[in-house]
Write a structure and sequence with these properties.
Elements (H helix, E strand, L loop, with lengths): L6 E2 L3 E2 L9 H9 L1 E13 L3 E5 L6 E7 L2 E5 L5 E3 L3 E5 L5 E4 L11 E4 L4 E4 L2 E6 L6 E12 L3 E2 L8 E4 L6 H14 L4 H18 L18 H12 L7 H7 L4 H12 L3 H19 L4 H7 L5 H12 L3 H8 L4 H4 L14
Parallel strand pairs: 3-12, 4-10
Antiparallel strand pairs: 1-2, 3-13, 4-9, 5-8, 5-13, 6-7, 6-9, 8-15, 11-12, 13-14
């Protein structure tokens, strides 16, 4: 998503979390976190090249060690790659990495199919695009992470998580150590790599206390795994035909118990939170400019265009068509209106 599209309501981000995990709950989560290692890979891309990668049957952490470029994940807009950018990619989601050519920019890049140009070194797959010194050096760790006996943390991730770190966090050194372990093929190298990858995930989860990105929401209610499952369904597909009954069933609760526990945990009723998730998705799609208003309304779960417009106006204080028009203007970031915010227990809704 372009930077202008990320700002609404006088500087508030479209992606700003509706709720976040408390330090106490995060500490409980980290104490019971289980990480199961799947694979490690390294992507090396030279200037003027594009590396295309297929999806993997597990979520992946992609950490840019060095260089600048951009990455496309699924159908999402490009994400700028600079050193110490960490991205969690959903399972089975293809991606491609592009590095600008000194002469032609991002046009006329040489395309490389990563699967056809993979090299196996120890237990590490290395994907190379280019025959010179790489501009981008990306380490990719694929894993499954769970909280408690069965609650997967990233299995319903529908869009990438992006966080920017710096050299002081030393995540590059941790991932380089994991690569070295696998390449050594010594006894226990897989277990050691899993332990090192877990360190990276712990550092990421610590960010959920202060990050302003919407991904932190998925950890905000893990002290109640049944409610967390229902919320995961809502965030994965906001526009699906959810009802109180269907959400209660996903939580294995009666309808009344579900509404009570969800509201007590989150501070707002489930259908109100669902509406906010749908309006955030709609704002993203309006910013991209690729879908019609009727398509966006349908994706948000609205059969009627007029009811969608009313809901969007209530959420953002502006009609969706005007929202899109203002974002297309050079001063669109500052001209979008302010909205209401209702904090509860230190959380911003």
């Amino acid at each position: 998503m372009n930077q202008r599209a990320r700002k609404v309501r006088s500087g508030r981000s479209v992606d700003q979390p509706l709720l976040r995990v408390s330090p106490r709950d995060l500490d409980i989560l980290l104490s019971t976190l289980d990480v199961r290692f799947v694979a490690l890979a390294e992507c090396l891309v030279s200037a003027g090249f594009r590396l295309e990668m297929r999806g993997v049957d597990a979520p992946g952490i992609h950490y840019n060690i060095a260089g600048t470029g951009r990455i496309f994940i699924g159908d999402d807009p490009p994400i700028d790659l600079r050193p110490h950018t960490l991205i969690v990619v959903p399972a089975k989601c293809p991606f491609r990495i592009e590095v600008r050519s000194p002469r032609t920019g991002f046009s006329s890049l040489t395309h490389v199919d990563g699967e056809r140009h993979a090299r196996l070194e120890g237990s590490v797959r290395r994907y190379v695009a280019g025959d010179g010194d790489p501009e981008i050096v990306l380490i990719c760790g694929f894993f499954h992470a769970s909280y408690g006996p069965s609650l997967e943390l990233f299995d319903k991730l529908s869009s990438p998580i992006v966080e920017r770190f710096d050299a002081r966090d030393q995540l590059d050194q941790t991932l380089k150590s994991a690569l070295a372990e696998l390449m050594s093929q010594e006894v226990g190298s897989g277990a050691m790599s899993a332990a090192l990858l877990k360190q990276v995930i712990v550092v990421l989860l610590r960010r959920s206390i202060r990050s302003m990105e919407s991904w932190v929401e998925r950890f905000s209610m893990l002290r109640d795994p049944q409610i967390a499952r229902a919320f995961a369904e809502m965030t994965a597909q906001p526009g699906a035909h959810h009802s109180l009954q269907s959400l209660a069933q996903s939580a294995a609760l009666s309808r009344s118990a579900f509404v009570h526990r969800f509201t007590d945990l989150v501070g707002r009723p489930p259908m109100t939170v669902l509406r906010d998730l749908r309006m955030r998705q709609a704002a993203h799609q309006l910013a991209s400019g690729t879908l019609t208003l009727d398509q966006i309304a349908g994706d948000a779960g609205y059969d009627s265009r007029s009811s969608f417009v009313r809901a969007f106006r209530k959420a953002h204080g502006i009609d969706p068509t005007e929202y899109r028009d203002r974002l297309s203007q050079p001063s669109g970031r500052s001209r979008l209106p302010s909205g209401k915010s209702k904090p509860k227990d230190g959380k911003r809704s």
